[in-house]
Every structure is written in structure tokens, then in C-alpha cells.
Design brief:
Strand content: over 45%
Order of helices and strands: EEEEEEEEEEE
Oligomer: single chain
Helix content: under 10%
Structural class: mainly beta
Mean pLDDT: 96
């Protein structure tokens, strides 16, 4: 059983920044991906970090940065220039969807 725990969400004004963290209960394995789910919408992929590089959805490209601290088994999502449409519950996921965190709420006020 792998546990993922997100933190760092909150309320921020448009244009502001937040850094989310997702701590994994194991060492090794793939770096967890970030997803989000806005009210009334389907869950969507946000960012992935692999040995080949970092990949982002078009809606966050240039504003969000994913990184990983192997010493802490923690993946981060630095979110800058936040927009109202970034409001969502943010989740981390690993092992092809087998394991998900409980999510952390990000609310951006316009």
C-alpha cells in the first residue's frame, strides 16, 4: 500500500502563488503526477515529471513547475500567476492511477 499526502492548498488572489507538496510513503518508483478537479468538471491531468523532462497541460504551461525532492520523497507543484480557473482540488497520483492522495483545495479569488 502506497500513501500519498498533499498539502499547501489555500485561498489566494488572482496573480498570486502557491506551492503544493505531495509526500509519498515509499522511496523509489515513479514521481507522482499532479491532477486537479474543478467544481462540476472531470478530473484533469496537470503535470508529470520523468527522467526525460517535465510535462504540463496547456492551461498551466509557463506558470506551474513540477519538481521532486528524493530525500523527502516529495513532489512539488509551484503555481505562479494563479487564475480563477485554477480553482480546484489538486491531487497527486502514482502507479497508473492505483494510488491517489486525498487532495488539497486551491481557491483563487478574482
Amino acid at each position: 500500500q502506497v500513501r500519498l499526502e498533499e498539502s499547501g492548498g489555500g485561498l489566494v488572489q488572482a496573480g498570486g502563488s502557491l506551492r503544493l507538496a505531495c509526500t509519498v510513503s515509499r522511496s523509489g518508483g515513479n514521481v507522482p503526477d499532479w491532477y486537479r478537479q474543478a467544481p462540476g468538471k472531470q478530473r484533469e491531468w496537470v503535470a508529470t515529471l520523468t527522467s526525460a523532462g517535465a510535462y504540463y497541460s496547456g492551461s498551466v504551461q509557463g506558470r506551474f513547475t513540477i519538481s521532486f525532492d528524493s530525500a523527502k520523497n516529495t513532489v512539488y507543484l509551484q503555481m505562479n500567476d494563479l487564475k480563477f480557473d485554477d480553482t480546484a482540488v489538486y491531487y497527486c497520483m502514482t502507479d497508473n492511477g492505483m494510488y491517489w492522495g486525498q487532495g488539497t483545495q486551491v481557491t483563487v479569488s478574482s
